[in-house]
Write a structure and sequence with these properties.
Elements lengths: L5 E7 L6 E6 L14 E10 L2 E2 L6 E4 L2
Antiparallel strand pairs: 1-2, 1-3, 3-4, 3-5
Length: about 60
Amino acid sequence: MGKRVSYQWQKSTDGTTFTALPSTIQAKTTVNGLTPGTDAYFRYRGVTKLGEGDWSSVVSLIVV
């Protein structure tokens, strides 16, 4: 049986203070309700039965 992994996601408007998004069992997520013309920052980490991994590098984008 393969490794079971879930993913934790976080978003931020300033790249420093993050809030949790719903966890997923796939390495992707959808985020609704972003405001056009603003910056958004995201990071994620994998979680296995051995524990939580390190947070990814922060990814930033401008919402269009």
